[in-house]
């Protein structure tokens, strides 16, 4: 392996952008007209761990017979760089899925970042977030924990374990260690509680299950279940299986898969 030499000033090499369309600049790259339906919510997404958070949330709200939680779901193919189209960038300047438009507001309200969307929907409908200050704060503690911790699993462990051009010991060791620390943390928390933030199912469970529950069930990266020795996290596994059986979770996953034509 050729030793990497740091330059004084980093320069972008276009060949490094072949995966996921990465560039060192933000903003739109082409003109685009996003589809718009009649439902109160217009969701532009893909079946990634961040993407499924929102379909699961909306389906959980529908399971609770919430009025006004209907949505139209449109695929944003990040492999084809559709997240850089002009209309999508207007909804989310950061060009990441998911993005949500609430058409029940006047003017329409645009929400991006999965954690922000979960919190918006929970507060709008007063569901899946405790009303008391202790329960609410604990739920937000864990919601924001996932937002901060998730990149170590996805952009760190997942990237170097599953997607990097070749295996590299240092980053795999570094991100595996941190991922296992996070799994151990969740396992210890779930040894004490039925759900992440306490005795009730909340948006913290939705956010964390979409990443760590799927990882625990071996759904994210081929071979990772054995590599991470997931069998040692018994409480996390029990919670992961239990959440996976919820009708709202199953319908939320099915909605994303259906949008992909699977």
What would your notes on this structure say?
With 262 residues, the chain is of the alpha+beta class. It is globular. Strand 1, helix 1 and strand 2 form a beta-alpha-beta unit. The longest helix has 31 residues, at 133-163. It has 9 helices and 4 strands; from the N terminus they run E-H-E-H-E-E-H-H-H-H-H-H-H. The chain has helices spanning 49-63, 86-91, 114-125, 133-163, 169-190, 203-216, 224-227, 234-244, 247-259, and strands at residues 41-45, 71-75, 99-102, 109-112. A 4-stranded mixed beta sheet has the order 2-1-3-4, covered by helices on one side.
Q: Taking Cα atoms only, what radius of gyration do you get, to the nearest Å?
A: 19 Å
Largest sheet entry? 4 strands, mixed
DSSP strand count = 4
Percent of residues in helices comes to 40-55%
The assigned structural class equals alpha+beta
How would you sum up the global shape?
globular
Portion of residues in beta strands equals: 5-15%
SSE topology string: EHEHEEHHHHHHH
- List the strand order in the largest sheet: 2-1-3-4
Sequence stretches where pLDDT stays below 50 over 5 or more residues: none
The averaged pLDDT comes out at 94
Distance between the termini: 40 Å
Number of helices: 9
């Amino acid at each position: 392996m050729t030793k990497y030499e740091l330059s004084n000033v980093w320069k972008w090499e276009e060949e490094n952008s072949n995966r996921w369309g990465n560039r060192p600049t933000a903003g739109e790259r082409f003109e685009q007209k996003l589809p718009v339906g009649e439902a109160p919510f217009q969701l532009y997404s893909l079946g990634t761990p961040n993407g499924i958070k929102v379909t699961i949330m909306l389906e959980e709200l529908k399971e609770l017979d919430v009025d006004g939680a209907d949505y139209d779901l449109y695929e944003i193919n990040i492999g084809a760089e559709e997240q850089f189209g002009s209309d999508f960038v207007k909804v989310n300047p950061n060009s990441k899925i998911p993005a949500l438009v609430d058409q029940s507001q006047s003017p329409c309200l645009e929400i991006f970042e999965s954690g922000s969307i979960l919190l918006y929907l929970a507060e709008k409908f007063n569901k899946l977030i405790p009303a008391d200050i202790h329960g609410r704060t604990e739920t937000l503690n864990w919601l924001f924990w996932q937002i901060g911790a998730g990149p170590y699993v996805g952009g760190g462990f997942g990237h170097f374990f599953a997607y990097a051009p070749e295996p590299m010991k240092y980053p795999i060791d570094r991100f595996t260690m941190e991922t296992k620390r996070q799994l151990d943390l969740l396992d210890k928390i779930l040894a004490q509680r039925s759900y992440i933030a306490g005795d009730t199912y909340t948006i913290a469970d939705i956010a964390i299950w979409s990443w760590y529950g799927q990882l625990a069930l071996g759904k994210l990266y081929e071979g990772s279940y054995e590599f991470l020795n997931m069998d040692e996290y018994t409480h996390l596994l029990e919670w992961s299986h239990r959440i996976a059986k919820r009708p709202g979770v199953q319908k939320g996953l099915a909605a994303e898969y259906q949008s992909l034509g699977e």
